TrEMBL record:
InterPro entries named in the record: ZP_dom
Residues in ZP domain copies: 1-92
Organism: Stegodyphus mimosarum (African social velvet spider)
UniProt-recorded name of the protein: ZP domain-containing protein
Domain of life: Eukaryota
Length: 92
């Protein structure tokens, strides 16, 4: 007796705009569901030298700006419009 897992995966390059280069994959995995005994052994290792990190700087949030052909930020677009994607990362 076996199990089946199916899913549809969409590889879309932008989270809003869909283009013809994006791909859709139908994934199907079949697997056995029988019980099995697994044994393993442990090998002792020496603890490596460690350094505790107590804080880290917060990463700035990037912003993606979509520009139309005129160079202004686009509020609506149509399929086939030439667009420019600008990624803005604010200074620290």
């Amino acid at each position: 007796m076996g199990g089946v897992y199916t899913n549809t995966v969409v590889l879309q390059h932008h989270n809003v705009v869909m283009t013809r280069t994006d791909k859709v994959y139908n994934v199907r995995c079949t697997y056995e569901v029988t019980s099995r005994n697994i044994s393993f052994g442990m090998m002792p290792i020496r603890d490596p030298d460690t350094m505790q990190v107590t804080a880290s700087p917060e990463a700035p949030l990037p912003k993606i700006v979509i520009l139309g052909m005129e160079g202004r930020e686009a509020s609506t677009v149509r399929i086939g419009d030439k667009l420019t994607f600008r990624i803005e990362i604010p200074d620290g």
